[in-house]
Design a protein that fits this description.
single chain; 7 strands; 8 helices; alpha/beta; Methyltransf_11
């Protein structure tokens, strides 16, 4: 990152943090759990009613959702031009439609300061396609299109990415450099705390 992006006043944005938010970042999501966390005793009441699992209730008790900020990433990002030093998002982009992905990439490029970094983690589509077995296509298709998530269709996967498609996406959005990275390797701050899926992902960084 350049001196512009290292400025002490510039903030770092975590898109789709869910239960993985970390200190020092603006942790955002659209999950209902951020609203539950804001209502005293709501998590306990939902847990007692059998509407919140033991594991999720434990996360509420640990304050996992208390620091989340609501942000709809399909709309313009609520940040000024060149105001952020870093953006991180893991396993979120695949839940957007192609036009939404393109708009979000442009918005990320807009809000990043010169030299700022955006680190994106997504499922590796090339690896997924390599699993295709023509003798059993239905199993592959069910996995790709997440048929079992019919009741959660809004949260299913809507798009897929390769290293080349990510590079083209962010270069078209206005970034000057693009790099395929390895797990917990790169220039994004705090990747030792942010990266958490070592075996199934593309790790990608774009520099403004």
């Amino acid at each position: 990152m350049t001196d512009d992006a290292r400025g002490g006043s510039l903030e770092k944005l975590h898109i789709g943090a869910f239960n993985c938010g970390i200190d020092g970042w603006i942790n955002t999501d659209i999950t209902m759990h951020l609203w539950i966390a804001r209502m005293p005793f709501a998590a306990r009441a939902l847990h007692l009613a059998g509407l919140l699992s033991d594991a999720r209730y434990a996360e509420h008790r640990q304050g996992k959702f208390a620091g989340l900020r609501h942000m709809n990433m399909t709309r313009p990002l609520p940040f000024a031009d060149r105001s952020l030093s870093a953006v991180f998002s893991a396993h979120v982009f695949e839940h957007l439609f192609p036009d939404e992905v393109e708009r979000l990439a442009r918005e990320i490029a807009r809000v990043l300061a010169p030299g700022g970094v955006c680190r994106i983690v997504v499922p590796d589509m090339e690896r997924i396609v390599a699993l295709y077995d023509p003798a059993a296509p239905q199993a592959f298709l069910k996995g790709v299109f997440e048929i079992d998530r019919r009741k959660e269709a809004a949260f299913a996967h809507h798009w897929g990415f390769t290293r080349a498609s990510l590079a083209a996406l962010f270069r078209d959005a206005g970034c000057s450099e693009t790099h395929t990275r390895a797990y917990r390797e790169g220039v994004c701050p705090d990747i030792d705390r942010l990266d958490n899926r070592p075996d199934e992902s593309i790790y990608f960084e774009a520099i403004k």
